[in-house]
Write a structure and sequence with these properties.
The structure holds 2 protein chains of 2 kinds. By secondary structure, chain A is mainly alpha-helical. In chain A, 74% of the residues lie in helices and 0% in strands. Chain B is mostly helical. The chains are: A mainly alpha, B mainly alpha.
């Protein structure tokens, strides 16, 4: 008698319509295990609700299935492409890292007026600069010496000519 | 009930075809009962079937719970934009031949629950009836429709 009362209470209907509270859900699940007549009535109600939905069905327009299949295939292809992309390894050496960078980034040519030089070249540049100064000073010294010598030679030539006359 | 559809690998296209053949027309009828617009209903049908079949693999294809799960899934997606109770009751005033055997209160209760997932307590407050009365009206509505179909 108690089970008949429960079956008439609207409990099954709220469960099948998806609006049962957590407590009602537990009650229904428990009753389906303990009372086969309750389970049969519930199954019948679920079947009738499906029949009711069938009676209110509307045929989708032609091409709907193809549209769905196409979109699902696209989603699956996208997912496969994402899965195929290799995960970066936790550790790899610099060369591999450089290679990975080259793979990931597009190389863009850029022109710059600046040049970066290793600091070790500093002493070489200083030595070249100092030597350059020494060579310049020496060249100026010998040039002046040579000019003075030329002037003396010219003076001596003039002197000799005057004496010979 | 819906936990069963979660964390399962995506369905294959053959399952889509199976779902489509079995549920597409029923689902479109159901969606149209909520959306009340042909084009929007068809768009929603495509979206809902795609997302549902991505989450769902029918382990027991003969299982009649699938329709209840699919209906609830569609209901949750479509009712995410919550309508006020007043809007809901106004929308429900549109007549449907499938519910011809029901009186006005039964129609309102059935549609609010079936299409919009309104709970007994929500309806009791918005319609100003006791919860027992709402529960009773829902049961009467379902019984009438089952009888009208000879069940």
């Amino acid at each position: 008698m108690e089970i008949k009362k429960l079956m008439e209470s609207g409990l099954m209907e709220t469960y099948v319509m998806g609006i049962a509270t957590e407590e009602e859900i537990q009650q229904v699940l428990s009753l389906t295990k303990t009372h086969p007549e309750f389970k049969n009535a519930l199954d019948q109600l679920e079947f009738d609700m499906e029949t009711l939905a069938q009676s209110m069905s509307i045929d989708p327009p032609a091409g709907t299935l193809e549209k769905i299949e196409q979109e699902i295939n696209q989603i699956q292809r996208r997912n496969q492409a994402l899965q195929a992309e290799p995960e970066p390894a936790f550790r790899y050496d610099n060369r591999e890292q450089e290679y990975a960078k080259q793979e990931r980034y597009i190389e863009v040519e850029s022109e710059s007026n600046q040049m970066r030089v290793n600091k070790a070249w500093k002493w070489a540049f200083i030595a070249v600069f100092v030597l350059g100064k020494i060579f310049l000073a020496t060249a100026i010294y010998f040039y002046l010496e040579n000019r003075q010598a030329q002037e003396q030679i010219n003076e001596l030539k003039i002197e000799l000519k005057q004496k010979l006359r | 009930m819906f936990k069963a559809v979660l964390n399962i690998p995506p369905a294959e296209p053959k399952d889509i075809r199976w779902f489509y053949d079995r549920y597409a027309a029923m689902l479109l009828g159901y969606i149209n009962g909520i959306v009340k617009d042909k084009q929007q209903s068809e768009d929603q049908l495509v979206k809902i079937l795609i997302s549902f079949t991505q989450d769902f693999v029918a382990a027991e294809k003969s299982n009649q719970h699938i329709w209840l799960e699919l209906r609830q899934y569609a209901q949750n997606r479509l009712n995410s934009a919550v309508l006020s109770d007043r809007q809901l009751i106004q929308k429900q005033s549109v007549s449907e031949p499938g519910l011809a055997s029901l009186d006005d209160l039964q129609k309102i209760v059935f549609k609010a629950v079936y299409y919009h997932g309104k709970s007994i307590s929500q309806l009791a407050i918005s319609l100003n009836y006791g919860e027992e009365e709402i529960r009773n009206q829902l049961k009467l509505a379902i019984d009438k429709m089952r009888r009208a179909r000879g069940n």
